[in-house]
Write a structure and sequence with these properties.
By secondary structure, the protein is mainly alpha-helical. It contains 31 helices and two strands. This is Tetratricopeptide repeat protein.
């Protein structure tokens, strides 16, 4: 990606006040805070409101910045000289765009050693909101010493110039300033400034120039250019520009009709809105850097901390954006994505429900909310949202798929199958068959007890994706469950294992089919490896126990079955486990903990496996 290497020094944003390790650690007594060097006494009077302080810590852990800001401000009232509390109250207030952030910034700013890029930006934004543009420039210049702020400083200053009637100087500063990889976005904002300033012809030229250098499609650029074309009598071309944008993304495609209906509306009409967009751009850059780090693989605790810092910094930038423009849906969508990634479901939900319903992207926010509800064990709340979306946008594969997933979560297999079938029919009609839809319907058929239909769908999916381990494992393991053609099942599972030998579910399936065929010496090492990789999977523990029983290791078998029983197995698996314990003639005594006993090494020698990487969805035979 273009921006993956832009911000090696973004930590400077976080180092001053974004990341307080006290909020990631177990609560200490209320008079103690932490910093990177360990616990330190708070600088203050010592009159700490412990209840409010601890409430703030919990709120941060839950991703509820609004509650955290309120709690830390309450704690600060009891000890107004406590600079640590002041910083926490200040940062969390900024993150939610709370107006009280401005007053806290003024307090922070009174002491030179406590000033930061964040306080400078807050005070600069406040001056911009008040129309005090020279004052805003002064604060922005002070923030510009920070490497991250320096990236967007040309945008902030250019919009200040435009607001003071100096559009030409603003445009020139963006187009002919120091070279930057952000030049496509500087050019776009130069076009926006020209449009806001009434320089229509120049705006068109700059929009076209930006399109030539922009890496991929940009929503802001496309909507701005389409609005220009529409208002200048080129309606057909304007509609084509929007169509081309929404065709690049099936989810964005849901907003196609609304974007067309609002095609004449410029997304940026003032300097204040332009500054808000600059902050969204910064958050986007931070997210790109976080993704780049994630793609480089796990790097231990330090890597996790860096990811946390990137997300905190991105959320802060989005807080700046929403303070400048509370209706900015682009900021809310990105913020909800970060909150969901951090598993802060309630916070993400609150962010999405506050999207203005009249915004063209509201339908996208509703779909994301429905998916969020489904993936966080609230599918019953997702279903009416998705049904309403289907009324608004019938015939959309992405909505039917999401509805099928929600019904699957509620175990309404008939409704799930119907939704997946509609999605499959739509995909076929568009001549773009999707094996994942066939797989989803196949799993629903399997859960509904129709193995024949499940097998048909899975074989059809394999015709499109013959080397997909998920499909091979699902079909092979299903055949073992049904005790049909175990030789073919083993062939399928051997192929799946060759494609992904670190997936615990596939390893378990291959071990189990060998056990079922009587090859205990070959099957047990595979089952032991699967149990080591995913010790909290009841199905894997049941299989290993059964294999141990068949070779006479009966005490170990009972141990494995009792562990499996304590891991909340499905009703079908629980029946098998209880039957096995009854066969052994012992009462079930599931352990209180969830850790499986250490698996004894098999008597059969096995090759030492290569170091395993964590496999996604380990221990599950279906996703």
């Amino acid at each position: 990606m273009l921006f993956c290497r832009l911000m090696p020094t973004v930590f400077l944003l976080s180092a001053t006040m974004l990341v307080s390790p006290v909020l990631a650690a177990a609560p200490e007594p209320a008079h103690v805070l932490h910093h990177k060097g360990g616990p330190v006494e708070q600088a203050g009077s010592g009159r700490v409101d412990s209840e409010a302080y601890l409430r703030g810590i919990v709120a941060v852990r839950l991703g509820d910045d609004l509650e955290a800001a309120q709690a830390f401000r309450t704690a600060l009232l009891a000890d107004p000289a406590n600079m640590d509390l002041l910083r926490q109250a200040f940062v969390r207030s900024v993150m939610v765009g709370d107006p009280q952030a401005v007053e806290l910034a003024r307090v922070v700013d009174k002491t030179p050693q406590d000033r930061s890029v964040i306080s400078a930006l807050v005070l600069g934004d406040d001056a911009a909101v008040r129309g005090a543009w020279p004052e805003a420039v002064q604060y922005y210049h002070r923030a510009g010493a920070d490497p991250m702020a320096r990236l967007i400083m040309p945008l902030l200053l250019a919009w200040c110039q435009q607001a003071q009637g100096h559009a030409d100087e603003a445009i020139e500063s963006l187009l002919h300033g120091p070279g930057s990889v952000l030049m496509p976005f500087y050019t776009l904002h130069a076009g926006l400034i020209a449009q806001v300033a009434g320089q229509s012809d120049r705006a068109e030229s700059l929009f076209e120039q930006a399109q030539k250098v922009m890496p991929g499609y940009d929503m802001l650029l496309t909507r701005s250019h389409a609005a220009w074309l529409w208002t200048h009598g080129q309606q057909d071309k304007a509609r084509a520009v929007i169509r081309k944008l929404v065709e690049t993304d099936s989810i964005l495609g849901l907003a196609g009709p609304a974007l067309q209906a609002n095609i004449a509306r410029y997304p940026v009409t003032s300097a204040r809105e332009g500054i808000a967009r600059a902050y969204v751009l910064t958050a986007f850059l931070l997210r790109q850097q976080a993704r780049e780090q994630a793609q480089q693989g796990p790097g231990g605790e330090g890597s996790a901390l860096n990811l946390f810092q990137f997300n905190e910094a991105a959320r802060l930038m989005l807080g700046f954006a929403l303070a400048m423009d509370p209706t900015l849906v682009d900021a809310r969508l990105m913020l909800a994505e970060i909150q969901d990634d951090e598993q802060h479901f309630a916070a993400a939900r609150e962010t999405l429900v506050r999207v203005p319903p009249q915004d063209p992207l509201a339908i996208v926010a509703t779909l994301r909310l429905a998916v969020l509800e489904t993936t966080n064990d609230h599918p019953a709340d997702a279903i009416p949202l998705l049904q309403h979306l289907l009324e608004q946008a019938p015939g959309q594969i992405v909505i039917e798929r999401a509805l099928g997933n929600a019904y699957s979560q509620t175990k309404d297999w008939k409704a799930a199958i119907a939704a997946y079938t509609r999605a499959i029919d739509l995909a076929n009609a568009q001549k773009s068959p999707d094996w994942t839809l066939l797989f989803l319907r196949g799993m629903a058929y399997h859960e509904a007890g129709d193995w024949a239909a499940a097998k048909t769908d899975t074989r059809a999916a394999l015709a499109y994706a013959p080397d997909e381990p998920l499909l091979l494992n699902f079909l092979g393991y299903g055949m073992v469950e049904q005790h049909e053609d175990l030789a073919e099942a083993e062939q399928l599972l051997r192929k799946a294992h060759a494609l992904d030998d670190q997936d615990a579910a596939i390893t378990d399936s291959l071990g189990w089919v060998r056990v079922e065929q009587g090859d205990l010496a070959g099957g047990i090492p595979l089952l032991e490896k699967a149990a080591e990789q995913t010790p909290e999977d009841p199905e894997v523990n049941y299989h290993l126990g059964e294999a141990y029983w068949r070779v006479g290791r009966k005490a170990e078998a009972v141990d494995q079955w009792n562990v499996a029983l304590g891991l909340h197995p499905s009703p079908a698996d629980e029946s098998l486990i209880r039957a096995a314990l009854q066969k052994a003639g012992v009462p079930p005594t599931p352990p209180t903990g969830l850790t499986a006993p250490v698996v004894a090494p098999s008597a059969t020698p096995v090759a030492t496996p290569a170091p395993a990487q964590p496999a996604q969805e380990q221990g599950k035979h279906t996703p």
